[in-house]
Structure of DNA-3-methyladenine glycosylase II:
Amino acid sequence: MSPPLPATDICEQARLSRDARFDGLFFTAVRTTGIYCRPVCPAPAPKAANVVYYPNAAAAEAAGFRPCLRCRPELAPSDGHWHRGDDIVARALALIEQGALNDAPLSELAGRLHIGERQLRRLFVERLGAAPVGVHGTRRLLFAKQLLTETALPITGVALAAGFNSVRRFNAVFQDAYRMPPRDLRKAPREATGDALTLRLGYRPPYDLPAMLDFLRGRALPGIEVVDDVAYTRVIGDAETPGWLRVDAWPASRADPAPAALRMQLHGCPPTRLQDTVQRVRRMFDLDADPDTIAAHLAQDTRLAPLLRARPGLRLPSGWDGFEIAVRAVIGQQVSVAAARTLTARLSQRFGTPLPEPFVAQGFAHLFPTPDALVDADFDGLGLIGSRIATIRGIAAALRDGRVDFDRARTLDDFIERWVALPGIGPWTAHYIALRALGHPDAFPAEDLVLQKMLPTDGSRITAKALRARAEAWRPWRGYAVFHLWREASASTPARTATPTRPRARSTRSPSP
């Protein structure tokens, strides 16, 4: 359950002191102005008698308030609980973020979650203070507001990016909600810079960007990704409309010396894919996590407590594409990280769509292969053993016919059950895919040899059963414990190759994480 709105006296103190720790945990609405703000808003503090507090922006807008133009509520960090895990509201929010209500009714969203429409609406109102449609409406208008404020994207592009099918409808909804036409947010014209688009992606600190880049750099695929000490860059899109993005730290300035945000620079991304691209990057870099909540829970374990103190900003590094992660996971069974990267690079180079010259100049050569490209592909000469080839082909076929997917509506147990039903996919591989393709905070590959060795401190190794039992107390954040233990292992020894103690026809263990 999400923590309730902080007590009024706490909200009042946080508002008056502009305490950044509460940014995104509540919003301040002012009756006399009809505007709601973040608790860190630099505007003069209103009188307490005129203030009412709301747990989120959607609840404030449902009560008739409009967002502040100065503190920009769209930049507030998310309440991490409601964007993660198996709770119905968390899964519903994940689907709404993917645009599930852009063109479909609430009944369809409820059906995907196997819950009644009335019950889903009741849960949202009880826990978030706004109905699902209200949350969806607030989210896309705030996204449009950010695009209008930060980019030179034409109004038509902003409307499409925010999920509106027509500019006329977008203008009407925006005017009704914010009492101004969209163009008024652009008081000064912005200069377009080709096809480049820059957006600010906020997070709740602390955030360990060097550790995130270090993990991604060790697994970067040549021709698809470029990772250095300060930025992650990769090709995106498809054969018809390829593009690329770059993610690094938002630069500090005199006005904001310590911005809690990443900078995403996009090239060649159509407006209709912009919303999906932003959500993929947020998931990939785990920007919606609440590190204090996670640490407070996991630090109750004496083994994890020092790891959390040493790296308080460690996040779950996900991947860009689910199929790409699944292929990497299969190739990485029982080999080192370096070997897995080499084999995956060969596969992607042979079967991925080549890119035109402008992309080559940026360090890109091809896209990652699609499932259709690998179903009947000839893997001869790549260095992959027959069982791995069969598993990759099986995954591609299963994704094509719908036996498995990366649907955020599924619970972790449902996801794992579907994937382990495929030949060659054991519990380790399925949980690894859940960690890195879904960013699921509770995925837990108990069969992992590194985890079994790292949890004890006396040099011994525990069984998967014992590890799983110990980790029950870590729910619903077991995935973070995994990465803390993996990080400690990689810091203390070079990448290692794990060998199963009991070889099986279906691989369940992995190499170094």
Notes: The first helix runs from residue 8 to 17. Residues 1-58 form a domain with the DNA Methylphosphotriester Repair Domain fold (CATH 3.40.10.10). The CA atoms of residues 30 and 51 lie 5 Å apart.
